[in-house]
Amino acid sequence: HKRFGGLVAVKNIGFDMREGEILGLIGPNGSGKSTVMKLIMGIERPDQGAVRVAGTDVAGWPAHRIARAGVGIVFQHSRPLHRQTVLENIKLALLPDSLLRLAAGAHVEARAREIAERVGLERVLHRHPPTLPFADLRRMELAKAIARDPQVVLVDEPFAGLTAAEVATFSALIASFREQGRAVLLVDHNVKGVAAVVDRVFAMYLGEPIAEGSASEVMANETVRRVYLGGTIETHARPELDKRGGPPLLDVRDVSVLYGKAQALQGVSLHVREQEFVSVVGLNGAGKTTLFNAISGLVPYTGTIAWGGEPLRSRGPGAIARAGIVQCPENRELFGSMSVQENLELGGQHLSPAERQGQLDWLLNLFPILRERQRQAAGTLSGGEQQMLAIARALVMKPRLLILDEPTLGLAPVILEQLSNALAELRR
After folding, report:
1. Which terminal Cβ of the chain has fewer Cβ within 10 Å, N or C?
2. Is the pLDDT of residue 91 over 70?
3. What is the 3-state secondary structure (H, E, C) of the chain?
4. What is the pTM (predicted TM-score) of this model?
């Protein structure tokens, strides 16, 4: 059990994991999945109950002791040391736990390289994390987690933001833990990805267990379908757009971006008209986020970007946002110590009080969980709830052009349906 003030985050949760077994943990956003992982890892202390690793109750131990006892965790969001290389980040996880031994042994370098090769990082060993695509950051977190040779591996959202090919690669990596006798607890909203790799599924809702069994049994459960899958996602009819001429709302022509000597974008052109949805697709590292940041005025570029026929080069990011181009970034960029309500109000500061309140009312109806969490600090929300808040904060600004970078990251299927409805409403 775990309470946060008056909120019961986890209630009467219990399951077993054996050597070589992969257990999938699913549930809607805010159901307590990440809290369960934090309770196992010692990041949070349970109010009641036991967490046994190889027969020893570790509940309430500090995280570093639980790590020594054989538990490793791969967090949903990477927080590497940005000034160290990939190899140095992995070596750090291999260093001795003693202040009397500050130097790494000769074997550490070889072991770090071996782990990096195993997770597919051998080509980027000497690069720094800020220059890596999203998939390689996930690989690095996985490498750090397995560096201590854990018996139990907790993996939070391994498939989020990955292409189909990358999901297949990560699934094979996680499945290889089974052969090594490790137990794996896996949280992800990619239902197909989870079902393909796990032995059993444990489903939660509002902090409590609702179903357990094989993937097919749990997915067929009526309660799971209602609260997590949300039935079937319906497609919205695409309205015929006015094909008459005239300048587009956004016009990007021959845009290129360099990071030092690295070419991130080269000669990219696209245009977006009113009521039009444009998808930018590509592998991780292809430059999608760089393109969005160029449009938002966050990175220098060559070429031209025009908004309503006027060039944007002379405007700063704040002026561009107030002009109607609003980006919801992949890494959310929330103010963690501020409440949900404060984050939302901050997004609507340039609106009149009446306009701002109207937007807030609409968004809290769209994402009811945010209404319940209005006074809660953004940093204490679940990953999916933070994604809802990031999208809501962008929408509160009443954008004419909304840029969504990985909008489905960390969202349960039932929330995707709500988001789909919201985007259709925006088009109307």
Report:
1. C
2. yes
3. CEEECCEEEECCCCCCCCCCCEEEEECCCCCCHHHHHHHHHCCCCCCCCCCEECCEECCCCCHHHHHHCCEEEECCCCCCCCCCCHHHHHHHHHCCCCCCCCCCCHHHHHHHHHHHHHHCCHHHCCCCHHHCCHHHHHHHHHHHHHCCCCCEEEEECCCCCCCHHHHHHHHHHHHHHHHCCCEEEEECCCHHHHHHHCCEEEEEECCEEEEEECHHHHHHCHHHHHHHHCCCCCCCCCCCCCCCCCCCCEEEEEEEEEECCEEEEEEEEEEECCCCCCCCCCCCCCCHHHHHHHHCCCCCCEEEEEECCEECCCCCHHHHHHCCEEEECCCCCCCCCCEHHHHHHHHCCCCCHHHHHHHHHHHHHHCHHHHHCCCCEHHHCCHHHHHHHHHHHHHCCCCCEEEECCCCCCCCHHHHHHHHHHHHHHHC
4. 0.69
